[in-house]
Amino acid sequence: MEKAGPWTHAVVGLPIAPFPRGPLLDFDIDGPSGPASLIPRAETATREALYLEGLATQLGVTVTESVRALLVEVLGWADAETDHADLFDDPVLDSVGPAARREWLRVSADCGRMLGPYVAALGETAVTNPAVAMSALARMGFWQSESEGSAMLAGYRDLVRVATQTAFGRDDRAPIAGEFLAALGDYADTYDLMAAVRIPLDEPFVVKCSERRDLRLDSRRNTGHQDLVIADARSNHVTVTVRDPNVRISRADAFRAGDSELAVGTSVTRRNDQFVAFYSHDPNRDYRVRVDLRLALLRRLELVPFFAAGSVVLLSLALMATPDLDLRTLALLGGPAALAASVLVGREQSTLGSRLRVRSTVVLCVALAVLTVTVVYLYSFRIA
Q1: Which end of the chain, C or N, has fewer beta carbons within 10 A?
Q2: In degrees rounded to 5, what are phi and psi of residue 205?
Q3: For helices 65-75 and 146-167, what crossing angle results, to 10°?
Q4: Burial grade of 156 (CB within 10 A; 0-12, 13-18, 19 or more)
Q5: Which class is 214-297 in CATH?
Q6: Edge-first strand listing for the sheet containing 2-3
Q7: Over the stretch 53-75, which tens digit does the pLDDT of each residue have?
Q8: Is 308 exposed, middle or buried (CB count within 10 Å of its CB: 0-12, 13-18, 19+)?
Q9: Phi then psi for 222, rounded to 5 degrees?
Q10: Is 194 exposed, middle or buried (0-12, 13-18, 19+ CB in 10 A)?
Q11: Rounded to an integer, what distance in angstroms lies between the CA atom of residue 268 and that of residue 88?
């Protein structure tokens, strides 16, 4: 804090937005007083665990110190997905016997089954597969023997089981249990990114953040998607922009996460070939959505290679059907192939444009190969 007469500013830890687990690429955050500092994920996980512990207390469950440590570890897990295959590869777990290992895997499977309806991720995460955190907890001294480790995992499973049973019951605590499971399921896929921001105490302020995310396109349909949270504020604005002038957005829709139904409360306010804006403000809107995108080249750029390929194929057929063919005619008819080949050497302004041209480039290459084989055959057997 700083003091200039009365208090005017404070440095506080603000939750910025839910972010998917994994590394942040080209991340930037600015507060009202300039760049802000990210709070370590371990500290963020501790705050998330305290929130869940508060809900568990309202359910009548006492979270022990060992279960709290396991909760903090799985919430702070950096990897997006985990795997049972390398669960016990760590030398720290060499002292764990086969029976205890089978028991730990069984406990993790129980947790994954109970939390499955609340987790959007398709693969295993540390929240649904808590056994992956046991080696890290052993290094930090939270358990020393098999029995202590088994008790820690069993306590975590019992916590999830009580919440699941309460959520489906007619108890007054059912909404609290539902909130606990929904929050824990969200933390399996994302974490609440927090930053230390210097803010004014007597006026509104804005915090802006940006990052780069990968968009994996389907090789056949040129489609991709992004999972977004659009209910963490009173209103949310999402814009999708294509910076390559040769690429257009042919389709963009918001669906419910893990579903094929359109998202509730999310509408498209502006749309053109290279820009789509979504706006959501309905209090009952979906918390998480999946924005599906389909990209394509501009129509004229998309059609030219296919037109050239068709022309080359027709030229090949015309050469084969010509009865009196000499070398001069063959060269005259084969010359336009250079025009078609010029399409192949055109340089795209981005790798995205090159990626979208793969199909048309292959078609044109095949057409040129057909023409080349035709010319060689005619020269060899009908002219030479």
Answers
A1: C
A2: -150, 165
A3: 80
A4: buried
A5: mainly beta
A6: 2-3, 7-20, 190-200, 37-38
A7: 999 999 999 999 999 999 999 99
A8: buried
A9: 55, 45
A10: buried
A11: 48
Integer Cα distance of 149 and 137 in angstroms: 9
Half-sphere exposure of 94 (CA within 13 A, CB side): 2
Residue 316, φ and ψ in degrees, nearest 5: -65, -45
What is the rounded CA–CA span in Å between residue 358 and residue 360? 6
Asked if residue 129 lies in contact with residue 81, where contact means CB atoms within 8 angstroms, the answer is: no
Query: Rounded to whole angstroms, how far apart are CA atoms 353 and 298?
Result: 10
Q: Tens digits of per-residue pLDDT, 232-247?
A: 777 788 888 888 888 8
Residues 57, 59, 61: CA angle, nearest 5 degrees? 55
Distance CA 209, CA 206 (A): 10
- Cα–Cα distances in Å, from 378 out to 321, 331, 340, 341, 364? 11, 11, 20, 21, 21
User: How many angstroms separate the CA atoms of 235 and 226, rounded?
Assistant: 19
pLDDT digits (tens, 9 = 90+) for 3-36: 455 778 889 888 888 888 878 888 889 989 888 9
pLDDT tens, position by position, 94-126: 778 888 888 988 998 999 899 888 887 656 788
For residue 41, how many other CB atoms are within 10 A of its CB? 18
Among candidate residues 158, 151, 287, 170, the one with its CA nearest the CA of residue 230: 287
Q: What angle do CA 175, 167, 255 make, to 5 degrees?
A: 80
Cα–Cα distance measured from residue 329 to residue 322, given in angstroms and rounded to the nearest whole number: 10
Q: Judge whether 155 and 148 are in contact, CB under 8 Å.
A: no
Other beta carbons less than 10 A from residue 207's beta carbon:
15
